[in-house]
Fold these 4 entries.
Entry 1:
Amino acid sequence: MVESSVMVAVSKALMGIADRCVQVMDDTGVSGDTIVEQVFREIRACRIYDGPTEAHKWSLAKKIRRDILTG
């Protein structure tokens, strides 16, 4: 459960940072061979490598629900 919650938190934070960098750099953030464009692509792919973020959220929700119901 800890691994899933860490994966969700880290991927969300990284995506937020990368998205903000792209916004700050305007159209140059996603065009050409900028480091921001490369990082944005890698972080987006990173959200899928160890299972989609949504799958981790569902896993956490099921675990929490099970814990609540079994008291």
Entry 2:
Amino acid sequence: MGRPLALVVDDEPDICELLALTLERMDIEAVTCGNLATARQRLAGRDFQLCLTDMRLPDGDGLELVQWIQAQGLRTPVAVITAHGNVETAVRALKYGAFDFVSKPVDVPALRKLVGSALRLPVADAPPGRAVLLGESAPIRRLRETIAKVARSQAPIHITGESGTGKELVARMIHEQGPRGDGPFVPVNCGAIPGELMESEFFGHRKGAFTGATADKEGLFQAAEGGTLFLDEIADLPLPMQVKLLRVIQEKSLRPVGQSTEVPVDVRILSATHRDLRALVAAGEFREDLYYRINVIELRVPPLRERGDDIELLAAHILARLAGAMETPVPPLTPEATAMLRQYRFPGNVRELENVLERALALCSGAITAADIHVEAASAPAEATLAAPVAAGDHLGERLESLERATIEQALQANRYNKTATARQLGLTLRALRYRMQKLGID
């Protein structure tokens, strides 16, 4: 195989020379041109492994080249060169499908890291990652296709969906199918870190930085260096930490607690939450600038009730895994048990399905029957409660209380009566959940 081939598009000769020299020192053959039209001709005539393009060109802009490459079905990753501090332009480039961006004046070490990441991109027929999203329903097929596209980018991705749908699984797939698949994948539950420890946990600290800091400690960003940092339940970050996180994402550097100098970081950010970030932004509980920075691309993971026949495929897979761990034969599901699973709405989604099947496996004798499937307390969909005919003497307050009680009981069961997890699923504080349970007489 010959050397990798890169195209540099910039109308400033000095910039072209700097970029070409940097690439040549990395044993990459560089071809340069100064306008959009010539760039299209070069890309159509040769197989380039990388394209670096300025945003402003004499006959157009870098975004047009990104869109043209996408329309031609080329797999050449494109990095756009933007003016220093022009975050909005960089975000637009990532949304259009750019792999990453470089700010002027060009930071050569950062450029080398970017080029290295781009040239590790998997080819079209590369084997799939270890994480697998099971299912053949239309929503899941579309999600898998989207993951394959966005994994090639460096753009921050925000994953939404109800609790238990598999948001971390989706994040792992993005990591494994992207150029950082050989690097670390570091998941962190933002709601599980005490507020006073957050800065140290994320950025690390130096010995003596505070009482109890008896040794240097690397933070989560350093642990994810060269890989992916997955910020689960990012909505739980307090506002002061949101400010610090935004700065690290924008500047690509951080300052450990107790250290006076900045440390560069090379990390891709993926985030997730089951809560509505737009509503939190409107309420002043989540920073708008951070929201737009992490939400360059948004992926929604569908709930189990939207996945049709997938429930049978998932049930078979989960039972096989559980039975293997217990060293017992895989029990079949009777038609009645399968029908019960298909009719249930699963507010706790795949996680709840696993809990239900684990209990059924422990209780069954041979095949799993309907009697082994314990979902009675929440078997009726919420719409049935709302659609029930109004009888004489019904009061709106009583009907709303009944619906609220059923919803809370359903969520409690799905979360194995863990109040903290239930409150998070319902979008409530723990105090608010306790108050509602007491008011409704839920023990």
Entry 3:
Amino acid sequence: MKKSDAAIQWCRQAFSRLWEMLPQKSVKASDEPIDVVIPIISKDLAILPLCLQGVRKNICHPIKAIYIVAPNDQEIVDFCKKEQLIFVEESTIFHFPPKHLGLVVTRPDGRVVDRSGWLFQQLVKLSGAVGTCEYFLCIDADHILISPHVFLDKQGTPIFYMSEECHTAYYKNIRKLMGKPYHSLLSYIDHKMLFSKKELAKLRKEIEKANHQQEWKEAIVSSYDRTDTSGFSEFELYGSFVSKKRQLPWRQKKLAYKEMADFDTLTQKYSGKYLSITFPCYLK
């Protein structure tokens, strides 16, 4: 992490902690049904059951369907059948597989990393092509909701849970892609986000307008900094684009895999203080 990033993140952490200490007004959930979309690869099957338990228990909206977007892997297909999930083979969305993006990054240390799959799942979210509802929630497979979450209030205002994440490459990308500066006291990267298909359609048009009518996917790929392994964020882009919104602190805790337990145990241990927990792969 760059020194500038570290300084911003420290400030965000301090602000976030203070914000979390303030009393939060209860939010009444809209009764509009939503879809849930979870992009995964085979390694995510180990933790996905916990994620699904959190989704089914702690999302305060009617869930019409849960979609798993993934490679055509028999283990994933079988899991979806068992859990009554709708499997979407990832290459059918854009009619090409992730590797077609050809996004290869050369890090400052000389290491070459293929980020095609990582960017592909972000494009899937921005496409709005999965599901039948106007609103759909995307959530990372390693993220577990242990307390109730509202993502759309009674007035139809979307709710974003804000984190202290800081990575300036995301903000530079938004300036390059959209031709506009990025301003946000906290980050929209919180492992989950409710998307509106109408808002996404507006965003895709804005991307193309800002890039001389270049197709929106191509514009995003072209704007990517090939020296940064994490050079784009769909969450930062979409969150900053939506004008009418409500923001809440995310109250999230990262845990190492050695601390993994069943859903009830995790809820009992952490829900008094946190809304969600995450088991990032780098803490295995």
Entry 4:
Amino acid sequence: MIIKQTYIVDDDSIFVFVLKKLLEKHQGFGKVVDFKNGNEALELLFDKKSGLPCVILLDLNMPLMDGWQFLEELQKSDIAQKIKVFIMSSSIDFNDIEKSKNYTIVQDFISKPINHEKLNKILEYIN
């Protein structure tokens, strides 16, 4: 599968900056668009004029709409099965990891920090 577009949904501007640089060097994630919270990402996802991303890299702890709320809304939609969601969180709480397994749209729970090996794992999973 060729990834044409990737969304990063995370409010940590430093993490997003570094992740975007990693994704650009990696050259496997297509155009990268970032959002500060789940609400912003959902607005664009549900806009019928915009193309859907292949991959969403999702943080859990964000203002306005956190990652769990985002997953609830996305999972209810008709576009949910067209997108691969990977949670990227600094949480190492076993309960968060287990809770993520309740969402069929979540492919994996990846702990921060992110590196090339973890990005390779995402690409392997998709292909």
